[in-house]
Write a structure and sequence with these properties.
Number of helices: 6
Helix content: 25-40%
Largest sheet: 5 strands, mixed
Strand order of the largest sheet: 3-4-5-7-6
Shape: globular
Amino acid sequence: MNSKSIGSNYEREIARLLSRWISGKDDPLICWRNVHSGTISTCDKKKGLSGANTEGDFQCLDLKYSHIFDLFCFDSKCYKECNPYFINSKNMKSNAILNQWIKVCEEAGNKIPVMICKIRDRKAPEFIVLPLNMRIPNQIKSMAYTFWDDKIKDCVIYLLDEFIEKIDAQELYECNKID
């Protein structure tokens, strides 16, 4: 299977997970993968257009939950391996996750970037990357990264299963919305 189809399959899996997490129901379909997975946003921004409402890998299908997608830019990444140390941001291969985090932050615009990751080594658990300054309603285990480089947004990594289980999507929205 090529990397494009692996990524597309993972996006479908995460769309179902996000739908369950946000709605609190077992079999909803409130979001789905954005057909262009951010390419529209990237192309629009290169043309000087806003790229608004096209950021990220997922789009809201149910307007009842659109407020969450108006605040957060959800993106997903699926990689063969991962370097958890993020030492050299210029090394694209060993720091793919860090470099994708930088890209997701840039493409999120005014939204809060959220990056969900899977490493296909069958050892590493799935994880979610969020900005360090984001307010989280419950305390859960995390790993924080701060950088000297102003271009890199400081981040926190949580185990995806624990995050989905212990963090309520609506509470997360309420903690981080700007009045």
